[in-house]
Amino acid sequence: MTTWGERITLVALATLALGVSVQGAQVEVKPLPAERRVDVLVEGKPFTSYVWPERVSKPILYPIRTARGTIVTRGFPLDPRPGERVDHTHQAGYWFTFGDVDGVDFWGNSEAIPEAERAKMGVIRQREVVAAHGGAGRGDLEVRADWVMPGGAAALEEDTRFSFRADARSRTIDRVTTLVAKGKVTFRDTKEGMLGLRVARGLEQPADKPEVFADATGKPTPVPVLDNTGVTGVFTSSEGLKGDAVWGTRARWMALSGRVGDEDVVLLLLDHPKNPGHPTYWHARGYGLFAANPFGPKAFSNGKEAERPYSIAPGQPAVFRHRLAILPGPFSAEQAEAAWKEFAAEYGK
User: Fold this and answer.
1) SS3 for 219?
2) How many Å apart are CA 129 and CA 119, to the nearest integer?
3) By C-alpha distance, which of 153, 140, 145 is closest to 128?
4) At a CB cut-off of 8 Å and minimum separation 6, what does 317 contact?
5) With 50 as the cut, is the pLDDT of residue 16 above it?
């Protein structure tokens, strides 16, 4: 069995074989356990942080910046900014959770949930930082966490490996998450999942009417109309769909393009062909939610498709591979497809 360091070297060699340089800006991965965070720096400047604040029910990456330093994630609830939305308190940073794990909601848990209800929801607890490495053009972080059910028992053990890459114009975050079940665990059909990102106001889609969205339990969350000045986001899928039409559809990649401040930005989220349920469904909303969820066929089709629950047998691993690329605009479908093919090849088909 290869070590973590050896696996990093093998991936780097595979990347070189594809003709992609691994040289670039110096990336530092700096654990600060007393502060409940791991900072990721590029040439000494902040890129993102892996954080597990006590007030958040799961570890997240927050905030996330472009190569120019522009923040592309929403500030609320950790650091609210003027003019941004304050709905869906559980949607903070960049996360990996699910809304129905044997009837327990890990997705919707937050400090906004009444204490009596929060006690019935799941929590993902950071356990340890296993490894942290920096280098030219790339840094790597391995962490472990537990998916804790009501009552305190862990249903799943999580091992996640992040690779952070940087050059003069772009940033990428690879997330490879392995879940191992203690006993049989079933992910039931729901739209509330799985890999999610809540974006800055400028990357939302302009809205002309208020909307109300219901969570997995049917509880409504109103989303009001705000001033659309500077709101420019547009979703585009690998299947050629745009805007609101992408919601609930399947695609191997999804792009969100727009302008944040004075910078044209493209967020490109890639679903690996080896992932369960590939190509994933997209829980992508104009109010700023950008999420990939393979386990909601009935929910996303409004009941037209049958439920397909996904079970993990005791001791068996389920692996999820995703890449988030933070790129300068304008958006190019050809470049997005090439990026997906490179990602698919790097981690094997």
Assistant:
1) coil
2) 27
3) 145
4) 178, 179, 180
5) no
Question: What does R_g of the chain's alpha carbons equal in angstroms?
Answer: 19
Question: Considering only CA atoms, which of 335, 314, 285 is closest in space to residue 74?
Answer: 285
Given a cut of 70, whether residue 130 has pLDDT beyond it is yes
**Scanning the structure block, which residue is given the tokens 């522009």?**
70
**Per-residue confidence at 17, pLDDT binned at 50, 70, 90?**
very low
Angle between helices 4-17 and 333-346 (to 10 degrees): 130
SS3 323: strand
Give the CA distances from residue 279 to residues 122, 190, 297, in Å, rounded to whole numbers and listed in that order.
27, 16, 12
The residues, any chain, with a CB within 8 Å of residue 339's CB and separated by 6 or more, are 253, 268, 270, 323, 325
**Cβ 176 vs Cβ 320: under 8 Å:** yes
Q: What span, in angstroms and rounded, lies between the C-alpha atoms of 140 and 3?
A: 13
110: CATH? 2.70.98
Domain count of the fold of the chain: 1
DSSP letters for 68-113:
T--B-B--TTTS--TT-----TT--SEEEEES-BTTB-SSS--TTS
What domain range is 83 assigned to? 4-346
* pTM summary value: 0.90
Name the pLDDT band for 118 (thresholds 50, 70, 90).
Answer: confident
> How many Å apart are CA 201 and CA 207, to the nearest integer?
12
Q: Residue 317's beta-bridge partner residues?
A: 180
Check residue 15 and give its pLDDT.
Answer: 39
Q: Which residues of 71-108 are buried (b: 16+ CB within 10 A; e: fewer)?
A: bbbbbbbbeeeeebbebbbbbbbbbbbbbbbeebbbbb
d(CA 24, CA 263) in angstroms, rounded, equals 22
Task: Return the bridge partners of 185, or none.
Answer: 312
Measuring CA to CA, which residue among 235, 309, 324, 310 is closest to residue 272?
A: 324
∠ CA 131-252-285, nearest 5°, is 90
